[in-house]
């Protein structure tokens, strides 16, 4: 367990990447395998990961993620993993309707955590983006307009040092046996 906590402690949102060093295909494949193996409600696997490695396309997608002064660093990211919600399957959809929960969003969050932790284990940095021009990115990446593009996970070799993590104390976020 100490190895896992070390990994979780090391993972951070990196916003400066080596512009010259490409991410190796083998590393990307291991990261995507970690995402594929993520658990999901009723094993629905309601995801599709569109991986952008082409430099020119990556820059265009980075620009579409850098609107309103946000995420300017995305233009320099060598890899974008676009996370699209796919149909959940009947069991997950029915269960979600009964329980008033949209399980695919939970599932996509779990898969995204797998991606970012796998990237960290490969010596790569990552940052999860939710603010972007969805229509423009879908057009650039050939994602059907009917699909819901939820996240853009950027990945690359970080060039800045690790920061100290600032988190609430455990007593503020955990209780046992009652709220």
From TrEMBL:
Enzyme superclass (EC): oxidoreductase
Domain Nitroreductase stretches: 9-157
EC number of this enzyme:
1.-.-.-
Which Pfam families does its entry note? Nitroreductase (PF00881)
Q: Could you list this entry's UniProt keywords, alphabetically sorted.
A: Oxidoreductase
Q: Name one GO molecular function term.
A: oxidoreductase activity
Q: Which family does it belong to?
A: Belongs to the nitroreductase family.
What PANTHER family does the database record attribute to this sequence?
Answer: NAD(P)H NITROREDUCTASE YDGI-RELATED, NADH DEHYDROGENASE_NAD(P)H NITROREDUCTASE XCC3605-RELATED
Its name, as the record gives it, is Putative NAD(P)H nitroreductase MhqN
**Native organism:** termite gut metagenome
């Amino acid at each position: 367990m100490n190895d896992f906590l070390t990994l979780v402690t090391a993972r951070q949102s990196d916003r400066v990447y080596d512009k010259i060093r490409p991410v190796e295909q083998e590393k990307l494949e291991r990261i995507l395998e970690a995402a594929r193996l993520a658990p999901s409600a009723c094993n629905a696997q309601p995801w599709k990961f569109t991986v952008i490695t082409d430099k020119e396309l990556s820059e265009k997608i980075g620009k579409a993620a850098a609107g309103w002064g946000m995420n300017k660093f995305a233009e320099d990211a060598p890899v974008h993993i676009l996370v699209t919600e796919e149909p959940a399957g009947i069991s997950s959809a029915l269960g979600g309707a009964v329980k008033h929960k949209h399980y695919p969003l939970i599932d996509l969050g779990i898969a995204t955590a797998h991606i970012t932790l796998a990237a960290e284990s490969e010596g790569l940095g990552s940052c999860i983006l939710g603010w972007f021009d969805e229509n423009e990115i879908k057009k650039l990446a050939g994602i059907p307009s009917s699909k819901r593009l939820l996240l853009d996970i950027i990945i690359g070799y970080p060039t800045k040092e690790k920061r100290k993590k600032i988190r609430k104390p455990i007593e503020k976020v955990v209780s046992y046996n009652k709220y």
